[in-house]
């Protein structure tokens, strides 16, 4: 489907789509700042509180692939509107929740709506912009929303929680969701999906969704249960077994949920591996640096959010034109590789940050390098993931790259948190001071994040095709 709506309407549609995606991205991080208030108000225990985050991640990660494929079959616009509706109603339920069970259940529905929106938004953008120059610029804006939304969420979460209450971090989604829905109805072309009477691959959908949910559950509970515990190992083994069954199903059915031939497309396969590594590095940057600033340097939640502002401004500059110009001038491989290596350098700087660090000398330089790296790299990663696929499979490709980012982020964060905790506990047992031990643990996590980013950069440089494909 190549849309013929006029140019101004097309760009307005992009901004509306990005507003919807920003709502989803914000919700992955905006909750973190409010968790202490939620715990006190609803009497969560330390163990049960994690489900305010995990319930969202579980359904979000589990339904990305299925959401993308449903969009291909039955229409991306229809699925986007369904996802926005689910997310908005679930946000209202979260904001009005007066019990633990209601909040956790509503967060799970939020994750489902968020998965559908994330899985099809990229396809809608790719179909709105078919010329390489416009597509590169549009993807730059989308990339900024994906990369910068997390740190914006920390800032907004701190403001809303301090000024009003934790309820408003959810209730703020209501007017945004209503406006996004209304504008999308008027702006997005109501194109039909690619379904011609074929049946949905139900067996494939059930096995891959269950496998992803089991994997996410095992990952997000790995630190608490133990990575070598029976529960974690059994869940990961079950997820791996279901993925093997899923591959067997896809090789045999007439209309597979995920055609295995897609993995023969070099850019698709490479960009998904790069996405896993890059997401792990991004989580090292976002979460571990926030912990360093809060628990080592003593920053307030609002100060932590403001510390990310330089990186956000740099990413905004790239999204508003610099990224598109780089892609059109050098293709997608060079900006991707250089961006990821810059991000690795930024994480390496954080890995040398002292206990008595200050913002100008020990936070700002790393933030600038990471802002440059994210601004340069994310657009090419997304373009590479979508550049070789047929239009009828764009939703699936979008779901795949989003799944890669989500799984890479969840697994990366779990690994990094485990490494940091193990290092800290070792030093505490040896008699090291608590702040010094904590900082040393963060150093190890930052260094591992730098290795992830550098590995992704080298992989992209070696295997991504140099030039962006024309539509």
Verbal overview:
The chain has 471 residues and is mostly helical. The chain folds into two domains: 401 residues, Up-down Bundle (Growth Hormone, Chain: A), CATH 1.20.1250; 56 residues. 81% of the residues lie in helices and 0% in strands. Helix 16 runs parallel beside helix 18. The chain starts with 6 loop residues before the first helix and ends in an 8-residue tail after the last helix.
Question: Characteristics of this structure?
Answer:
471 residues, mainly alpha, Growth Hormone, Chain: A, 2 domains, 20 helices, globular
Mind sketching the topology for me?
Elements: H1 7-27, H2 30-42, H3 46-49, H4 51-62, H5 64-74, H6 76-96, H7 100-128, H8 132-163, H9 168-171, H10 173-187, H11 202-220, H12 222-225, H13 230-252, H14 266-296, H15 301-307, H16 309-330, H17 333-350, H18 359-387, H19 394-429, H20 434-463
Helix pairs in contact: 1-7, 1-8, 1-10, 2-8, 4-7, 4-11, 4-19, 5-6, 5-7, 5-19, 6-7, 6-10, 7-8, 7-19, 8-15, 8-16, 8-18, 11-13, 14-17, 14-18, 14-19, 14-20, 16-18, 17-18, 17-20, 19-20
Tell me the series of helices and strands, N- to C-terminal.
Answer: HHHHHHHHHHHHHHHHHHHH
CATH class of the largest domain equals Mainly Alpha
The CATH topology of the largest domain comes to: Growth Hormone, Chain: A
β-strand amount: under 5%
Under the CATH scheme, the architecture of the largest domain is Up-down Bundle
Largest sheet: none
- The CATH superfamily of the largest domain turns out to be MFS general substrate transporter like domains
Mean pLDDT: 80
How many domains, as an integer?
2
Estimate the helix proportion, in percent.
over 70%
Radius of gyration: 21 Å
Number of strands: 0
Q: Report how far the terminal alpha carbons are from each other.
A: 12 Å
**Secondary-structure-derived class:** mainly alpha
Q: Total number of helical segments? A: 20
From the spread of the alpha carbons, the general shape counts as globular
Unreliable spans are none
